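Ticket #4471: structure export looks truncated?
Reporter: QA, pipeline team
Priority: medium

Steps to reproduce: submit the single chain below to the structure queue and open the exported record.
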Amino acid sequence: MNQPIIDTSPKVSDEVRKTTCYMCACRCGINVHMKDGKVAYIEGNRDHPVNKGVLCAKGSAGIMQVNAPSRLRAPLRRVGPRGSGQFQEISWAEALDTASDWLTRIRKTDPSKLAFFTGRDQSQSFTSFWAQAFGTPNYAAHGGFCSVNMATAGIYTMGGAFWEFGQPDWDRTKLFVLFGVAEDHDSNPIKIGIGKLKARGARIVGVNPIRSGYNAVADDWLGITPGTDGLLILSLVHCLMAAGRIDLDYLARYTNAPLLIDDATGLILRDPDDRPLVIDRATGALVPFDQMGVRPDLNAHHPGHRTVLQLMAERYLQPEYAPEAVAERCGIPALRIRALADEIARVAFDQAITLDRPWTDFRGEKHDRMLGRPVAFHAMRGISAHSNGFQTCRALHVLQILIGSVEVPGGFRFKPPYPKPVEAHPVPHCKSQPDHPLDGPHLGFVRGPEHLALREDGSPARIDKAFTWENPMSAHGLMHMVISNAHAGDPYRIDTLFLYMANMSWNSSMNTRGVIEMLTDLDENGDYVIPRIIYSDAYSSEMVAYADLILPDTTYLERHDCISLLDRPICEAGAAADAIRWPVIQPDRDVRGFQTVLIELANLMELPGFVRKDGSAIYRDYADYIVNHQRKPGIGPLSGYRGNGDQTGRGAPNADQLDRYIRNGGFHVTHIPGNAEFYKPWNVAYQEWAVGMGFYDKPMPYLFQLYVEPMRKFQRAAEGHGERQPPDHLRDQLRRVMEPLPIWYPPFEDGNVDPKEYPLHALTQRPMAMYHSWGTQNAWLRQIHGQNPLYVSHKVWQQHGFAEGDWARVSSVHGAITVPVALHGGLNPDTVWTWNAIGKRKGAWALSEDAPEATKGFLLNHLIHELQPARGDGLRWSNSDPITGQAAWFDLRVKIERVEPQTECDPHFDAIASPVGRGPKYLIWKVGQ
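Actual output as written to the record:
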């Protein structure tokens, strides 16, 4: 028979260009296959340390981002009212002149009149450097509404946290416990890791109100009541301490558990050189904690003092933390809580592992092996985005430490450049003066009230009120409060709001309709209350319509980017790694990379650090900055191929550096020596390696902080001690929440609304195939998630008589939405949830007005306010964690009622005009012949 001739192996490409993905924050390595100079196909790079060739739907769909009809095409100046979407295309010269004119006038008079905030970008070490040079105190990125509780709690407790700070020891872990983890963060490495665990028969336990993704493949699932994770964790601590199943040797050697706390002040006993003191178990003498040969006594007795471990036992062995006391509130039976505690103890202690690797600790003691506790934890936004999130995250870090499973074989391992103690980080700076740079970095870690960002009169120095008595330890700022504070003129008015990749008029704001009104509100003179808005994005998002000047960004395959050890690195626990993006294709539009635009603006304004004394530019563009910028001598954005190309970590700039990265696949990796891979905070070999890499200037061994003394200092201020005093209305809150040992308190919204009227918790999750808002305009990814129902439990489904195809009205104290509902079998019975950022505003993203995302997609944001419900005290409190200011997205309480099916979700918003128009019905293009 005659068979047709079919080419079963068609030529995929004529060239492969290796770079870094930008479809989520994983930053995987990708091979971009090119045909005739165009992108034909994207696959994972098998040599890359992050994903090892694995690529998710988002990464593969990156080709649709660089061909998206929603891409902005040229700089734009608003010509109609804000929100109308009426713009005029202008040249880059006019756009830069306009922006530099606005900004220069601010800088010469009052730099604090600029609020510069960036969303989900990955160049924060650079944007913060720019903002510091400009001189405004008002800079931060998106962390304040993402996961600052997790990161900050981790830094203060143990020098790092999950995800970018560390990872489980996937090759040795025998029990993996996840708290509040959705599928959008670090998805490919976690999928690879879970695959390893499953192959070895290790156990996985998921603690989450929603069973999806990772929790769906867990061996056991605990459908916890939202906001009670901290209570569950402290109950586990209770069980472990009551059973004596804690690692006493680890606690004595490597934590502040044996430190002596003054009963009168709550402060740590120190010597004249400010070194914490312990009682040596062998001699009974009072000695510095780090003295050679010392054996700290966990049960020491010293007049008027108790050890940290004694304080912990006194608190956590109380019956209020017993499983039987917390079970009903957590929604988990007491027997299951005890079973989890037993399993953690059994694996940690009865299945302990050892590695025959000699190492030397910071006290000079030599060890002939490394002891491992093969229990690893992982957590993310689910436990972080609550008003009690900081203390909950602290509790989880303390739980890990109590069983000795941090930075040991089988447990949680830090990724370079972490671990870093609080002392290795800057404190926040806020001194702003005309025509000068800021006096230091904007963000950092306070050690006490003396580091708050306050003006001389005690008022907040920052527009978001970060680092104030309202939220003293707000290490990432409060991006969700910028617009409402600026609109209210509280603490002061601003002139220009400058945003990058921050969709603040839609899915990145609480109180979406209210924020839109704030952005368009006029004062008594008919001028906008927020006078000027500059916005940069690659796409025609909802926020574009509300800006006065648009600086169009490139897509990620058209620009240089730097995934830096100075910023948000891609390291693995056993290696330091960084990476670049580079223009594998050239833009076909009149757009420029935002980082290069900032350099062009800095050069026009002659900002310090960007121009020489004669006014000439130090950097041509961002690529030039990546290669030649030095944060300190020998330390730059990239750690690889420095000096003559053979130096790593420290070394002079190398003009060939970017080309070397490109030839190596877009990344550089250097492995930690075997004897330095574990016990990093205390291991002399690691500390010396870290100094050579430039992470520290000198070794910085430190103790894990079960008891966080800076928190006690804020408590003492609230009690009336010290020169800096909080306002009276905040004293009670500070005394209550700034406990130096982890506590649990109910989420604030639980206490501010009637639980009988609003009996349900409402949550959002990001699906694995979407990331923030830009994925839902992607033609491939839209086929996976084109709309989003509200998922309800069997209990709610039956109570309200729901059937397939039904709709519901969902109400909070702030507002109401009308949406389709669907039954979800793996759900806490008193919880409803939906996917986040699927819903789109009509007219945005080049989507048609009848697109499912605009008609059957919705946001829970309409139900959430940036302020808590009124308490009756005449004040309106931020809907945030009172310690860090993290947005409490997941405290939302709602009620639900069945309604007749609708044709569209409510609320409705008028379609906004788009500067890019509408995309074609079908995206069709041909690459190659």
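Status: closed, not a bug. The export was complete when the record was re-opened. Leaving a note from the reviewer for reference: The CA atoms of residues 155 and 422 lie 6 Å apart.
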